[in-house]
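> example.struct
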């Protein structure tokens, strides 16, 4: 079924709201204010529509930067419009999921604005791809299992695009069905990781870790493990967290979801002591190598650990996965004796829930900064500092 409508405000998930005869439709591929024709999927209670024709385009619409495959959901609009979109999504999440948080932020004089970080293209230092039946590096079409062979990806760093463009030289390195990670570390040359094998050139294996540098620090990170994707993400997040939390030489810090030690290393050089908790065994091995002065434990992070692990801490830092802390986890941190809590969130809805829970249980938001570390996608990184 095809219908025509005017796209409304953006909401979480990469959609704009559309309304027809009183029914709400989530529209994929439209910019607010555009008149579009959509193909409607009415198989679920909440209808969704995909744009098939733009009848009245927005002045913010541009040629898509990457519509060959997935990975750039907002690539059809100007960067300035993307920032406005993401800001509106955060505001919407706070309005609908944040309880009293909206009023709290207004009383504190805090405005939300997603900040641009570097150029929108060529900043991605990691790209996970599949190998198709012909042995070509490929990505999935958005929302599909179909693989599309690629020889470039404009969001990726130049060194990654060099590998994509010259993949014939890597013949035999990977095979159909493999999952391949292309990496352009900030502290060394590019590598290709396939499971536990890492190659610095066709046929030339190298160590399992890569070197990353930011803000005068260096980290060794397992190639197959997690590290921030945007080339400027480490320095951006370090600046927001360390300055926001105002860590002093005499402070004791508790850090949760510490990964390979992005925050752990500099904090161990600045604070009296730091305890870091992380669930991944591989990340813990990296973190112990990167931050030998820190006390680092591998543990499943849950509300009980958040409560006990933060005992005696002056500052708490948490960088959970997209699911966030959860209500019980946020309650545990709110009840801690920490003078400052730094929460790094990659999901607006989870952030709104977690921060509002802490605010409603006695905490105050000192700052809330959002960064566009995933240009041309629907994702945003948010750093909230609470006292």
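> example.seq
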């Amino acid at each position: 079924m095809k219908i025509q409508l005017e796209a409304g405000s953006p909401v979480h998930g990469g959609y704009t709201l559309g309304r027809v005869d009183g029914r709400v439709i989530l529209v994929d591929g439209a910019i607010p204010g555009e008149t579009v024709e959509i193909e409607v999927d009415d198989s679920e209670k909440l209808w969704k529509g995909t744009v098939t024709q733009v009848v009245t385009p927005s002045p913010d619409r541009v040629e898509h930067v990457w519509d060959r495959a997935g990975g750039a959901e907002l690539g059809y609009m100007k960067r300035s419009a993307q920032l406005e979109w993401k800001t509106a999504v955060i505001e919407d999440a706070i309005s609908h999921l944040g309880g009293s948080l909206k009023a709290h932020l207004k009383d504190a004089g805090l405005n939300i604005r997603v900040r641009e970080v570097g150029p929108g293209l060529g900043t991605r230092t990691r790209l996970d791809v599949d190998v198709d039946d012909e042995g070509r590096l490929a990505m999935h079409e958005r929302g599909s299992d179909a693989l599309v062979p690629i020889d470039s990806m404009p969001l990726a760093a130049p060194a990654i695009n060099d590998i994509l463009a010259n993949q014939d030289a890597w013949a035999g390195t990977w095979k159909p069905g493999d999952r391949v990670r292309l990496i352009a570390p900030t502290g060394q040359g590019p590598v290709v990781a396939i499971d536990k094998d890492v190659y610095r050139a066709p046929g030339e294996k190298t160590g399992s870790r890569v070197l990353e540098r930011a803000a005068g620090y260096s980290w060794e990170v397992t190639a197959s493990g997690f590290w921030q994707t945007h080339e400027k993400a480490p320095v951006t997040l370090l600046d927001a967290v360390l300055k926001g939390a105002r860590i002093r030489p005499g402070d004791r810090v508790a850090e949760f979801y510490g990964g390979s030690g992005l925050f752990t290393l500099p904090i161990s050089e600045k604070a009296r002591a730091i305890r870091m908790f992380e669930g991944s065994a591989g990340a813990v091995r990296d973190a112990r190598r990167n931050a030998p002065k820190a006390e680092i434990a591998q543990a499943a992070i849950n509300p009980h650990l958040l409560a006990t692990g933060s005992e005696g801490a002056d500052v708490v830092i948490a960088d959970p996965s997209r699911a966030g802390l959860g209500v019980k986890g946020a309650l545990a941190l709110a009840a801690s004796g920490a003078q400052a809590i730094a929460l790094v969130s990659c999901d607006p809805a989870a952030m709104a829930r977690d921060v509002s829970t802490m605010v409603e249980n006695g905490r105050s938001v000192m700052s809330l900064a959002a960064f566009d570390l995933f240009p041309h996608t629907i994702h945003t990184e948010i750093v909230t500092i609470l006292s």
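> remarks
The chain has a mean pLDDT of 96.
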